[in-house]
Amino acid sequence: MKIVIQAFAVSFIIHALYFCSMMFIGLSKTSQYKPDVVNAWNHAGALQNEVTFGPAVSPPVYALTFLGTGLVFSTVIWFYKKDI
Questions:
Q1: pLDDT tens track for 64-80
Q2: The dihedral of CA 36, 39, 40, 45: what is its sign?
């Protein structure tokens, strides 16, 4: 049972790092974006009329990656403890 808890703790840390890095990258891209409004009005065909925020992943996919990462790390921990 200790191996499972350790594996899910590592999986949680990896997923937390992933989510925090994605939020930091999005925040930095948003804060550094400077639109070229003056030149955009000269070319009316180039103006956007829709906004996209990026791909959205379904929550069950994150649950599967969490369980998959936990399974991978549980086997790694199991083999590591077996050799000691």
A1: 999 999 999 999 999 88
A2: negative
Convert the pLDDT of each residue in 2-29 to its tens digit. Answer: 889 999 999 999 999 999 999 999 999 9
- Cβ atoms within 10 Å, residue 57: 9
Contact residues for 69 (Cβ-Cβ < 8 A; gap 6+)? 10, 11, 14, 15
| C-alpha–C-alpha distance, residues 70 and 28, integer Å | 30
Structure tokens at 50: 């829709």
How does 9-34 read in b/e, with b if 16+ C-beta sit within 10 Å? ebbeebeeeeeeeeeeeeeeeeeeee
User: What's the pTM?
Assistant: 0.69
